[in-house]
Amino acid sequence: MGVSVRSLFSSRVMQPSARDELLAYTLTRGDSEFIHQHAVDALAASDIEGSKAIQVFFGLAGLYLFLERGNSGRKVQAAHAFMSQIQKVWPVFDRPLGIAGVSVEYVLGFPAGEARDAAVLRWCRAVWEMWGAEREGARRETDRLLEGWLGPGDQETER
Predict the structure, then answer these.
(1) Within a domain: residue 95?
(2) The pTM is what?
(3) N-to-C CA span, the chain
(4) Which of 1, 59, 95, 111 is deepest in the core (most CB within 10 A)?
(5) 45, 43, 53, 44: which is closest to 21 by C-alpha?
C-alpha cells in the first residue's frame, strides 16, 4: 500500500484534520470494544510534544492494559478514571528514540469498518513497541496503581 509513514511526535508532522478524522471515526463506531479509547491512548503516547506527564502515562497505561492485559476500551477508560482519583503526580518517561512504523494517516488509508479497525490495532502495537525499555516502567506503575482494583466486568473471587 502506498501510504507514507511519518513520525507522530509533533503536531507539526501530524495534521490536526487527520487526528480529528480518526477520533471522529472511532467515536462513532459504537463497538463493544470501544476502539475510541485505544485511539486516544495511541495518540497520547505518540504525539507527546508539549504533553503533560499524565497524558503520556495514561496513553502508555492504556496501551499496556489493552495490548498486554486484553482489556476493552471501556475497561481502560474506567482504569484511567480510577487512577486519576488516587494519584496526582505522574511518572515521566524518556522520549523514545525511534518512531512508530504506523501513523494516523496510514490508518485513514483503509476503508472504514473492519479494515480500518485492524489498522488502528496495528497502530496501537507500533506505538507501544516504539517505547522500548520505557514500557517496563509503565507496566510497573500501572500494575501498582491498579493493584486490587475491580473494574467493570470484574468480580471478586472466593478465597
Answers:
(1) yes
(2) 0.84
(3) 53
(4) 59
(5) 43
Q: Is residue 20 included in any domain, yes or no?
A: yes
Q: What is the pLDDT of residue 70?
A: 95
d(C-alpha 72, C-alpha 60), whole Å: 15
Closest CA to 90 of 137, 124, 49: 137
**Residue 5 within a domain:** no
Percent of the chain with pLDDT strictly greater than 90: 69
- For residues 45, 49, 55, 61, the Cα torsion angle rounded to the nearest 10 degrees is 20
Which of 87, 90, 106, 88 minimizes the C-alpha distance to 46? 106
For residue 122, what are the domain limits?
16-146
The CA–CA distances, whole Å, from 73 to 59, 76, 93, 150 equal: 12, 5, 23, 15
Grouping H, G, I as helix, E, B as strand and the rest as coil, residue 83 is: helix
Question: Does the residue 73 lie in any domain?
Answer: yes
**Among 147, 144, 124, 151, residue whose Cα is nearest residue 60:** 124
As given in the structure block, the three cell numbers for residue 81 are: 478514571
DSSP 8-class letter at 35 = H
Number of domains in the chain: 1
DSSP 136: H
